[in-house]
Amino acid sequence: MKLRVRNLVKGAIYVREVERKNRVIIEALNDLRESEAMLVHAEKLSLLGELSTGIVHEINNPLNYSKSALFLLRRLV
């Protein structure tokens, strides 16, 4: 009888330990998911910045050409 009680107590202790470890794992998984979402958001912002830089560059090229042409025309006139 004592052996059976001891085994039941050990089993209950193991169950609690497994439940505690499961909670730790679930919390870590939630943290990882949150970090992943933040990384995806940061990557989107980075790509948006690169795209914006490219667009500004493409707009500035013709503007600079026009500005230079106007400068030369003013010198000639």
Q: Can you put this structure into words, describing what you see?
A:
The chain has one helix spanning 2-76. By secondary structure, the protein is mainly alpha-helical. It has one domain (1-77). The longest helix is centred in the middle third of the chain and has 75 residues, at 2-76.
Q: Give the C-alpha Rg.
A: 33 Å
**Total individual domains:** 1
Mean pLDDT: 94
Report strand %.
under 5%
Summarize it:
The protein has one domain (1-77). The protein is 97% helix and 0% strand.
What is this structure's SSE topology?
Layout: H1 2-76
Features:
0% strand; mainly alpha; 77 residues
